[in-house]
Design a protein that fits this description.
single chain, 113 residues, mainly beta, elongated, 5-stranded mixed β-sheet, 3-stranded antiparallel β-sheet, 8 strands
């Protein structure tokens, strides 16, 4: 999975981040694939915390059928409102395949006024 691991955003701004997934030969055929996003609180955090007030993140498509040796592009949207507290936020982007394979990545989001 390839994506920017550090994002700078201003309060009240929306950013789109490209996320690329390359499925190799490690799957035998079509499998269900799913992303999920959570507030990790800290880098490499495993806890799934609720999103801070004034902060929203989503990815599209978040669920699809994956095939071997294929590349998939998704768009991660990060939105903040003008009332968000400036600071550092950590998002955890998880993925799972139907065969039980899974992985995670972390994105640092620095919010400024």
């Amino acid at each position: 999975m390839l994506f920017d691991q550090s994002i700078l955003i201003k309060a009240g701004e929306t950013k789109l981040i490209d996320v690329t997934l390359e499925v190799k030969k490690d799957i035998r055929g079509p499998e269900a694939f799913k992303y999920s996003i959570s507030n990790a609180g800290v880098e490499y955090g495993r806890d799934q915390l609720t999103m801070p007030e004034g902060f929203d993140a989503s990815i599209e498509p978040f669920e699809f059928t994956a095939y071997p040796n294929t590349r998939y592009d998704s768009a991660l949207t990060i939105k903040t409102n003008t009332q968000i507290v400036p600071g550092e936020y950590w998002l955890r982007l998880d993925w799972t395949l139907e065969n039980g394979s899974r992985g995670s990545g972390w994105i640092e989001v620095a919010v400024q006024r």
